[in-house]
Amino acid sequence: MLSASEARRIALAAQGFADPLPTKPTKRHLRRVIGRTGVFQIDSVNIVARPQFVVPYSRIGPYDPKLLTDLAYRDRAWFEYEAHEASLIPVELYPLFRPRMHAFREHLHAPRSKGKWDMRMHAYMKKERPYMDAVLAQITEHGALSAGELNDGGRSGPGMWNWSRGKQAVEMLFRGGEVAALRRPSFERVYDLPERVIPKGLLDAPVMETEDAERGLVRLAMSSLGIATVQDVAKYYRTPVAETKRRLEELVDAHELTRTEVEGSTGAAYLAKVGKRKPIDRPALVTPFDPLLWDRSRALRVFGFDYRIEIYVPAPKRIFGYYVFGFLSGERFAARVDLKGDRQASVLRVLASWKEADATPGDVAALKTELASFASFLGLERVEISARGDLARALRRA
Question: Which stretches of the chain are DSSP H helices?
Fold first, then answer.
């Protein structure tokens, strides 16, 4: 049985928090980070910075964001797809997602189940496939296009996420692997043929069997989690729970994983092969879309950090704030801060700050230093701390 402290250390090391901080981060360090996390989740919320830029910062400190943009969209070292959610993924992992793409396309012929979502997708694709083919023809002829640039693309569709007809069609093509995604400097997503985005060798390779792809994704998830339950692993790449359990047991039988238990937790967990577990002693601001926090139940179980994102909660009902970062101090979350990047005033605004039960004066000082570093990374000149929250007074005085 592992102690709770050992489990936290393993989880943090698997995510790259035990790696040495580089003096001058390079593309090599960004590749190392995504090698640890497996994905960078993409989100359009830009009140502070988009999460795909913050996840590496949390692990390697201030770096040039252009390095990430170049890797993803100039070097084509990463590609976009629905992994955990919309994500950047190392392009060499493309084969693991092709069975998922092919399965999605099968909705045109028959729903995969009688579930509401599968039936809805089947009905949509049966009705809209002629238009989807017309969209595909436009992209083939004209090259990368945004949803709004498609013929008839601005007309309202039948209500899926309030997307336009063009957006719905091109997103279905994207999820089925018939087009690939790129980004313009404005962050607008555009769509092109896979052969113009994905290396030829990956496209020409035979499509993997679904079970082999699932096994690969489960193996990757375990590498990024270090220690995890079946549910933890299934959530990482959205693999079916029953299949995830089978793949984990296969990896145990192959001596790639071991079963274990963690002090204070109920049920079995799986443990990846780990080296010497050194103490982790560094501060880090962690975005809500970080793999360390996106599974809220795991954050509570492993770190004792009860986190809920409140973006979609009406303002009067929010407890901690709109866009709250966790503050990791060593091997525990010591505080949380509601942040906003005021680019016009060049200020990182701490709209509220809250302490966890075991926060120390040293944690407060470390948080203030980390906020200054983060502001500099964002290109902001100073930090302003509002009075809201039970940590605000101490943080302002630190």
Answer: 4-14, 27-37, 51-60, 65-69, 94-105, 116-142, 165-175, 200-204, 210-225, 230-237, 241-253, 296-303, 361-377, 392-397
